[in-house]
Amino acid sequence: MKKNVVIIGAGNVATHLSIAIRNADYNIIQVYSRQIDNAVLLASLLGVEATDNLEEIDRSADIYLIAVSDSAIEKVVAQLPGLKGVVAHTSGSMDMDLLEKFDNYGVFYPFQTFTKEKQLRVSEVPLLLEAATEKAEKILLELARDISNKVQLSNARMRKALHISAVFACNFVNHMYALAGELLEKEGLSFTLLEPLIRETTQKALTMSVRDAQTGPARRKDRVVMNRHIETLNDKSFHREIYTLVSESIMKMYSE
Amino acid sequence: MKKNVVIIGAGNVATHLSIAIRNADYNIIQVYSRQIDNAVLLASLLGVEATDNLEEIDRSADIYLIAVSDSAIEKVVAQLPGLKGVVAHTSGSMDMDLLEKFDNYGVFYPFQTFTKEKQLRVSEVPLLLEAATEKAEKILLELARDISNKVQLSNARMRKALHISAVFACNFVNHMYALAGELLEKEGLSFTLLEPLIRETTQKALTMSVRDAQTGPARRKDRVVMNRHIETLNDKSFHREIYTLVSESIMKMYSE
């Protein structure tokens, strides 16, 4: 028997997860979004019904996935009726107990960065699960294993550590690229010059210990070069402050 | 007529460049390193003579590449005899005029991160050149184009901007990975959980604008999540300070 799933949310996470769930032969029966245009867009992609009214949520589903922004979860939960199915949110940083008004609930956290326009293989995305009841654990584990090869049970503390580590390894990494790009742009140089360096840095991080992979003036504690760089950087932007602080952090890591 | 090349230095940059130069059918005739063991190691890889004495440098070569640490260049130059060939250093951050005692000199800056143990395709590495004379420019351009498809003339200012941008896009990126790994380790979680995220973050940076690729709490200006993360982070390490500063920088970039 195929399970019925309702998707609450129509953003990046909701889009990628719902496509993977549909492809794993689940019946997605409804998509909700606060903004009806977004709900309709995802719902039509999946060939299902759209709604922007939480009172209209189908009450017969087996699984409800709440993939909305962290700050919206509480409001969504307050507006949802009592539900028999398993209800899970997809947030790395929110507590499972936000959902305690339901009989069976849990967390279904995909550890990845999602962009709507960009396809990715959900099968390679680590899914971190937490469940309040045996029934919720059984059903969420089954769903998770049907769409990913990397399923792991985790508590709130582990999930939080993962989420913060993702901020460093993804959001902050991307910002370092953006800051690097700004420096090149000022000299009329193309961002594409960075591409081989970005590729190589990533390759190293994936194949050797990041501790051993570290290079650069801070790693060598070369204060002459660091000071010359810091002097060059415009103190009206954050480049200078970030250069100084991150270099201190690297030097500390290698003096321990 | 094959050109004769002397390699001064036996570190990461010297190793990768000299192999690429040898493979492009130049005659490498000598390797110098302050530490004879290092000189012998690289020289035997290339099948040539090793020395740790700058007075013994072969004076008949066409090209001398000084690939030593920034702080050692001046000392090496002072100890070198007058040379007829073209002398170039490989540093992104040092002035060309460090070499002004020679007749023909320049800079031969490979814009990449090098690790001895890890092979890489030098043909994909951008080479940034600067030359003091026409002869130096001609010979360095020829050498550069023989080993790389990405050769560009640049002045000291551009080279410096590139070097600092590499600190952000490579050294600091790697450190973000290391900091992320520390957070996971504390919770007994494996660094490998980060791999799909690292891959995807890189993929995005290489295929879309990094400005558009930015995600996360700072991008959304979600202070509730950011504050919760900051509270969690141990203030004895640099995690908390870096989290705060880089988040501020992201928020500023998207408020402009």
TrEMBL record, chains A, B:
Domain Pyrroline-5-carboxylate reductase catalytic N-terminal, residue spans: 5-85
Pfam families reported in the protein's UniProt record: DUF2520, F420_oxidored
Stretches assigned to the DUF2520 domain: 126-249
Alphabetized SUPFAM superfamilies for the sequence: 6-phosphogluconate dehydrogenase C-terminal domain-like, NAD(P)-binding Rossmann-fold domains
InterPro entries: 6-PGluconate_DH-like_C_sf, DUF2520, NAD(P)-bd_dom_sf, P5C_Rdtase_cat_N, TM1727-like_C_sf
Top-level taxon of origin: Bacteria
Gene3D superfamilies in the cross-refs: NAD(P)-binding Rossmann-like Domain, ProC-like, C-terminal domain
Name of the protein in its database record: F420-dependent NADP oxidoreductase
